[in-house]
Amino acid sequence: MWRERLPGVSEMRFFFDAVIFILLVPVLFVLAYQNGLLDGIVPDDAIPADPFIRAELAQTTSASDLSRRIDKALDAGSFDDATMYAEIADYMGVAIEPGTAARLQSEKSLTRTVSRNTGSFFEGFITGQGSDTAGFMGAITSDLTVVGDVRDIGQEGTKLVQGQDYSKLVLGLSVVGLAATTATVATGGGALPARIGVSLLKVAEKAGTVTVRFGRDMARILGEAVNFEKLKGVLKDVNLADTSATRHAVADYANGVSMARVTPVLSDVAALEKSVGPAESVRLLKYVDSEADLARITKMSGKLGTKTRGVVEITGKTSLRAFKTVANLVLWAMGWGWALAAAIGAGFLGTLGRRFRGRPARA
Does the pLDDT of residue 32 top 80, yes or no? Predict the structure, then answer.
């Protein structure tokens, strides 16, 4: 009698079972994925990162917060940061406050851009150091030639010869840079990524964005490539104030440098630069403590481009996998879950309606 009064009980049970199944399977999948149980089976790229990243950003920032960050950056003269936060707002699909947008647009004028960049570029080119995009570009431009390498070998090499504290990172990279320059010419550009990586790491070290752990690891790797004691013997016989003599002496020595261990790291740095540009690469290195961190940040930058650093600063997450959590899955699913449930519900009601219409009328 009960089943006759409610002809849709079995259909209703199927409806709820289907909804539970639809919600439970993705959650179990993400849990297994997060705990590495699916490594080797499901590549990272199999799950789109953008919905998860947007869900995380929606939890941690807003249009008003991003507007505040932009205004603060402009007040501090950090145009690069202001632009970065504006890009994140666009990525999230939210509008920054009108007054903030007007300030940012004003800073993009040709006059302001020229005024902001000219002095910084030449300062970076001469000193090998920078604090903004133009300064970093100047430093990297000078270092992509042998000028920067010879300058740094003269400075750090003098300390080595005199028994003073010196930067193994800067000196080692400078020697590797000369070797990479020679290899780049010899291979028709094949060693260019290594050459770019050398320059970026040197500028980052001088800017203070290379972490202690990563700097220590790089110094060890460079120690395997460059024999510092042997280099010291070479530099003792050279007038390091004579850039031409320094270049020729060290260039000959650099031909014997082993690039096998250092090249993969330098190539990752160059790949990072390709995604976000030189200045942002330098800034992002402050989130790198190991080669694995570098690989994760590089992969993340391939997805987010110049927004990468802002996303890291706002969310605290430094890999694409870190965004793919159950919490973000639920937020993402809410966008389409109701539509899916409605579709199933419509099918259920349709079946229920057909059952009622098909029952014979009682006498």
Answer: no
d(CA 161, CA 329) in angstroms, rounded, equals 58
Select from 127, 148, 138 the least CA-distant residue to 195. 148
Q: 220: how many CB neighbours lie within 10 A of its CB?
A: 12
> Coil, helix or strand for 319?
coil
For residue 59, the tally of other CB atoms under 10 A from its CB is: 13
- Both structure tokens of 42: 């499901």
- Work out the end-to-end distance of the chain between its first and last CA atoms, rounded to an integer number of angstroms: 17
**What is the dihedral sign for C-alpha 276, 277, 278, 283?**
negative
pLDDT at 2 over 50: no
Cα(228)–Cα(208) distance, rounded to whole angstroms? Answer: 23
Nearest to 331 by CA among 29, 26, 96, 18: 26
Phi–psi pair at 117, nearest 5 degrees:
-95, -35
Q: Name the nearest CA neighbour of 49 among 335, 338, 340, 319.
A: 319
Q: How far apart are CA 330 and CA 328, in angstroms?
A: 5
- Residue 252 CA to residue 303 CA, distance in Å, equals 41
- What does the alpha-carbon distance between residue 100 and residue 67 come to, in Å, rounded to a whole number? 6
> How many Cβ atoms are within 10 Å of 133's Cβ, its own excluded?
22
Spatial CA neighbour of 324 closest among 23, 22, 21, 36: 36
Report the candidate in 2, 72, 14 with the shortest Cα–Cα distance to residue 349.
14
Q: What is the pTM of this model?
A: 0.75
pLDDT digits (tens, 9 = 90+) for 216-239: 999 999 988 898 998 999 899 889
Tokens of 43: 């590549």
